[in-house]
Amino acid sequence: MRFDVLILGSSSATPIYGRHPTAQLINVNEQLYLVDCGEGTQVQLIKYGVKGNRIKHIFISHLHGDHYLGLIGLISSMHLVGRKDELHVYGPPGLEEIIDLHFLYSQTELRYPLYVHTTQDKTESVVFENENVRVSSFPLSHRIACTGFRFDEKRRLPAIDRDKVAAIGIPATQLPSIKRGQDYSAPDGTIHRWQDLTIAPNPPRRYAYCSDTVRTSSYLPYIQQVDMLYHEATFLHEMLDRAVATYHTTALQAAEIAVEVGARKLLIGHYSARYKDLKPLLQESRSVFPAALLALEGNWYPI
Predict the structure, then answer these.
(1) Residue 148 pairs with which residues in a beta bridge?
(2) Domain-by-domain residue ranges, the chain?
(3) Catalytic residue among 36, 66, 121, 152, which?
(4) DSSP β-bridge partners for residue 210
(5) pLDDT of the chain along its 303 residues, tens only?
(6) Is 65 helix (H, G, I), strand (E, B) or coil?
(7) What fold is seen in the domain 3-156+202-302?
(8) Could you report how far apart the first and last alpha carbons of the chain are, in Å?
(9) How many CB atoms lie within 10 A of CB 273?
(10) Is 277 a catalytic residue?
């Protein structure tokens, strides 16, 4: 099953050096989820060949403009191209009021149902779940209410071992029950264990998204043992005082967090406009966590 992330925006605060404010697209089994929606997100979707109407769920971490100012434009464009399917938006208190205000004064009545769900910034909470994935929000430590999001892939059913099933002559009608964990009783009374007739699926994968936060231990329990951790790394560690003052994290700290929570891979992003060259940020992270990667716009990263 496909599970990967496309970086649409990687800049903090403002677009600069060809980088755009924060936005990511998560593909889970060909279902698309948008995480944050900075200015220009819909242009980035077009650039990278993604149809916006395929997105049914949008998750907004907080109400600083570089994380949500593209949302109204995207919602509006979905309306203009004739969207009919419902859209669900998850975000902090105040987001629904902002959306309603825009459409009130533009006298816009959307052609499709829009549902806005308020997230919690004090506790962890499951905000969405289907047959493929469970999405949880968890509190971060920023200047305003802010959450991270964790995507947990659902455990898949095992695959049928076709060679073994064919050799025994098991009818196709019995295969669904075998996949669900039921043994097969042959006509001669032989019991064939379901474990012997199936191929175990890969372990479920986990992706955690930490948008804007100062480094604390409070959110680490929510991102333990993830396969990929995205963590903001706005500054080099030489600017630690500035990071603390603005409730942000350094590239070194992001790497230390990845080590502490046992992440397999680390993506760093949300780069300050003072860094045209991103290599020093990557080098700083890799000095602690060698599996660190830069979040580069247009790149897909498998979880």
Answers:
(1) 138
(2) 3-156+202-302, 159-199
(3) 66
(4) 231
(5) 899 999 999 999 999 999 999 999 999 999 999 999 999 999 999 999 999 999 999 999 999 999 999 999 999 999 999 999 999 999 999 999 999 999 999 999 999 999 999 999 999 999 999 999 999 999 999 999 999 999 999 988 888 989 889 888 998 998 999 888 999 998 888 999 999 888 988 899 999 999 999 999 999 999 999 999 999 999 999 999 999 999 999 999 999 999 999 999 999 999 999 999 999 999 999 999 999 999 999 999 999
(6) helix
(7) Metallo-beta-lactamase; Chain A (3.60.15)
(8) 11
(9) 14
(10) no
For the stretch 261-289, pLDDT in tens is 999 999 999 999 999 999 999 999 999 99
What are the CA-CA distances from residue 22 to residues 54, 67, 97, 272 (Å)?
A: 20, 6, 22, 12
Residues whose CB falls within 8 Å of the CB of residue 128, separated by 6 or more in sequence, listed in order: 57, 88, 90, 134, 135
**Under a CB-based contact definition with an 8 Å cutoff, are residues 179 and 158 in contact?**
yes
User: Which residue in the block uniquely carries the two structure tokens 């800049």?
Assistant: 11
- State the DSSP string of 91-135: E-TTHHHHHHHHHHHTT---SS-EEEEEPPSSS-EEEEE-SSEEE
Cα distances from 187 to residues 23, 28, 168, 190, 197, in angstroms, run 57, 41, 11, 7, 17
- Residue 83 tokens read as 């969207």
Q: Distance (Å, rounded) from C-alpha 93 to C-alpha 46?
A: 29
Burial class (CB in 10 A: 0-12, 13-18, 19+), 80: exposed
